[in-house]
Amino acid sequence: MSYSAKVSKDLLEIGAVSIQPNDPFTWTSGMKSPIYCDNRITMSYPEIRNTIVEAFVSIINQYYPEVEVIAGTATAGIPHAAWIAQKLNLPMVYIRSSAKKHGKGKQIEGTFEPDAKMVIIEDLISTGSSVINAVQEARREGAEVLGVAAIFTYELDISTYAFDELQVTLKTITTYSEMIQVALESGRIKDSDRTSLMEWKKDPKSWQ
Questions:
Q1: Alpha carbon distance 193, 189 (integer Å)
Q2: Range of 18's domain?
Q3: Structural domain tally of the chain?
Q4: pLDDT, averaged in runs of 10, over the chain (208 residues)
Q5: Could you give phi then psi for residue 11, rounded to 5 degrees?
Q6: Can the peptide bond before residue 75 be classed as cis, meaning omega within 30 degrees of 0?
Q7: Is the pTM of this model over 0.85?
């Protein structure tokens, strides 16, 4: 079984991902979504988090082998970044959503060399705005951002455009499409649900 299918199955089984095509969730932004993803739950499951770390390491070794520092986004990306950095024996930093209002006013905690080759770790990608902010801050501080790696992406066009505009690559362990397929195969959703779920990905505003 591929990492994509295995992690999708694991996330569904522990309730990190919930699918409700007939009773959509409401995000903080107000957007309606048939899927809710909370990958922070994976911290409590050692075997699953180990699989996720292995999948991340596989992605990094394949796409970003020259990486010199691992960065986690605050807060959900931090634990995964720490485990990955430990596995790869690399320095780790984390990037806040904004600079601290006290002390030295840092937005990036930890240190790295000028022009260090960095991979930024995020737990999930919706619009992509938070991790895009992290990429921009890392670049301002002198890092060479090789790319972003995340557990899951909703595959929304808005995030695709954002990454393209910033000219940064995104690699994820699993995707919305893969999650729907695994949910269908495991009987968590019906075949009749699949069409509407895929329509949401194409046009989320149609569900508002």
A1: 6
A2: 3-207
A3: 1
A4: 96 97 89 94 98 98 98 96 98 90 81 97 94 96 98 96 95 97 95 92 83
A5: -65, -40
A6: yes
A7: yes
